[in-house]
What we know:
By secondary structure, this protein is mostly helical. The chain has a single domain, classed as Endonuclease, Chain A, CATH 3.40.960. Helices cover 46% and strands 10% of the residues. The chain has a 3-stranded mixed β-sheet with strand order 1-2-3, with helices on both faces. The chain is elongated and about 55 Å long. The mean pLDDT is 88.
Amino acid sequence: MVDVLTKKQRSYNMSMIRGRNTKPEMRLRKLLFFKGLRGYRLFGVQGKPDIIFSKYKVAIFVDGCFWHKCPEHFNEPATRKRFWIKKIDGNVKRDNEINRMLKTEGWTVLRFWEHEIEKDINECYLTVLKELLEKGYRNDHKNT
């Protein structure tokens, strides 16, 4: 299928795509906050995790299905395939390197696909909570 937008229009559209504070990421952050998991940070760790519990060394990433090549939902782009596949494969390679680096430094890395957050955000929350509890997290907040 041929792109219906001009190169200039497509370039503008692609430049508007967020790398941080995406809707799935914000939904997860808001739920964690609402449930009382408020000790997280948003920066300060190599690899730029989306959510960081530095005291417990838990790094959370929210990965977009297209940008990080979700095995369930990724569809190859119809145009400029070589460019996009190279870029997306680079993202996947970088993700794997970041996972290895953080694990070597003693971090637990949790990665959620955007579709997992859309489908069952509470399951994602429970995964985070379970990991934090295993690392000694104590929360007296009544929403957990």
